[in-house]
Amino acid sequence: PGPGRGERQRGGGAAMYAGLQELGVANGEDLKETLTNCTEPLKAIEQFQTENGVLLPSLQSALPFLDLHGTPRLEFHQSVFDELREKLLERVSAIALEGKVEERYKKLEDLLEKSFSLVKMPSIQPVVMCVMKHLPKVPEKKLKLVMADKDLYKACAVEVKRQIWQDNQALFGDEVSPLLKQYILEKENILFSNDISVLHNFFTPSPKTRRQGEVVQKLTQMIGKNVKLYDMVLQFLRTLFLRTRNVHYCTLRAELLMSLHDLDISEICTVDPCHKFTWCLDACIREKFVDNKRARELQGFLDGVKKGQEQVLGDLSMILCDPFAINTLALSTIRHIQDLVGQDTLPRESPDLLLLLRMLSLGQGAWDMIDSQVFKEPKMEADLITKFLPMLMSFVVDDHMFTVDQKLPSEEKGPILYPTTIPEAFTKFLQENRIACEIGLYYFLHITKQRNKNAFLRLLPALVETFSDLAFSDIFLHLLTGNLTLLGDEFALEEFCTSLFDGFFLPVCSRKENVHRHVLRLLLHLHHKVAPTKLESLQKALEPTKQSGEAVKELYNQLTEKLELRKPSPAEVTETPPMELPLPTVPTPASL
Question: What is the pTM of this model?
């Protein structure tokens, strides 16, 4: 059984007066003892009031005036107390800013020594917490007492918590862990959002907008200017990235550094060797393109890694592994390839393109580098530059030739048919080379965005088997489903749907739940464009199994509801019975 009412009240009373006895100030318990042992209670109360009231002579004559107005003494003393506490809080904040540094902190330390015994007294606690907040170094003994008491720890300011955290990595980890989980969940929610659009996707928000997110802001506040805490967070992110291979931790690593940069926290930015590189890359991500000037800067940082400092490559690779960085580098690579076609230049003759490939390679090799602790740039395969990229350029040329031929007058048109096959070597590159696969997938997204159905159907079979199943990663499928909305009208065609669904999506739905979810997202958006018979077979094929997760079941139910609403009512379906009497023929004007 829990404590009785009397015990709870005594417990509450004890907290209310906690620490007063140590300072020699009478409290409720003293009054209770006095009244228990006296013969004249009224006189004892009067004496207690005189000894412990506000010691101001002019006040004594005014108090009866309040009695006449029916204002309880408690209300009066409470208002005086509140006013004095506010003044004291203001004074503490003022002391923290005035005079010489040593003097001001000495005053605050003395004040803390005198008041700390009252830290559990709710009415005085804000003052004690305010004093600790303004002390750059709270005495160790006091920090331990705060840490040991859950309520005190919860009540203290983040400035005090930082001092506790920096020597208690496990406690700091407990505080940070829920935020990191929330961050990953937020990213996944965006990737699986039911709002499919080519204009607004995962990569649409600018870096500065992303940094205003709740998790980044909270972590920034928790770290403050404390380099030790910043290093701890980076260590958490590296460990989680190694454990899960989740690239969103790389995004958070870059966002956190740039959030501290926005606040001009030089104490941290000057000691993070990745700061200037991340700052320059951040500007490229904002523009979604690496221009020549910034390319030179980024190359300077990479070339400037000195012997003995190779470990910085681990952090740089993590910054480059951020999906927003990969997206920018891949988009820039596709743009460069198209420019090279127009300039009649080979990939190996373009220093800018080679730098983009170097950074892509470093970013894609982040996990291996941090895992192996071998800090050197991955070796670029010559075939990527001399064989794969020229092959990709030949696809661009095929498109140009076909487009030009279609625009020619019919008598000048040649017998050009759009090529339907792809070199076996191209498919092999997508399967065996990570950088080739990334560039190939971004080229595929590019042709989809251009509504190039011929190129889409030609390249799609090559995506069935890719390096590490990259074609079935959430980021790629999120972008692909968005771009497919531009080919909406093609969904009415049997050939297109068979290639996309039967040839690409459906064979992997049973083994990859994320693909199942993305297909359902797509159909929720484009079901009205699909031929009814095809839609019916897709609905059957996509039906969740017992093993399917809740997200798949929920999406499938949403799709089923939408399809039910589209079905015509029985009244509409019923055909009009044929009339028994033939209608007389009405002569047309021409036959009159």
Answer: 0.85
Q: Which helix (H) or strand (E) holds 407?
A: helix 389-407
Q: Where are the alpha helices (DSSP H) in 245-322?
A: 248-262, 266-269, 275-287, 292-303, 312-320
What are the pLDDT digits (tens) for 23-62? 656 666 777 777 787 878 888 777 777 777 776 777 766 7
Which residues touch 376 (CB under 8 Å, ≥6 apart)? 310, 313
Is the same domain home to 243 and 295?
A: yes
Q: Do the Cβ atoms of 518 and 481 come closer than 8 Å?
A: yes
What is the pLDDT confidence band of residue 283, given thresholds at 50, 70 and 90? very high
The answer as to whether 25 is a domain residue is no
- Residue 316 makes CB contacts below 8 A (sequence gap 6+) with 274, 277, 301, 302, 305, 362
* Cα–Cα dist 223/163, whole Å: 10
Report the C-alpha gap between 299 and 285 in whole angstroms.
16
Of 180, 252, 184, 188, give the one whose Cα is nearest residue 474. Answer: 188
Confidence of residue 555 (pLDDT cuts 50, 70, 90): very high
Find the range with the poorest average confidence among 143-157, 404-418, 452-466. 404-418
Distance CA 271, CA 259 (A): 15
Q: Tokens for 269?
A: 């930015």
Alpha-carbon distance of 503 to 493, in angstroms, equals 15
Pair (373, 442) in one structural domain: no
What are the structure tokens assigned to 304, written together? 């400037």
Residues 130 and 179 occupy one common structural domain: no
> Which whole-number Å values give the CA distances from 192 to 196, 207, 212, 216, 491, in the listed order?
9, 20, 21, 21, 21
Q: Averaged over 444-450, what is the pLDDT? A: 96
Residues of the domain holding 216: 168-382
Q: Where does the pLDDT of residue 115 fall: very low under 50, low under 70, confident under 90, or very high at 90 and above?
A: confident
Do 339 and 291 meet the contact criterion of CB atoms below 8 Å apart? no
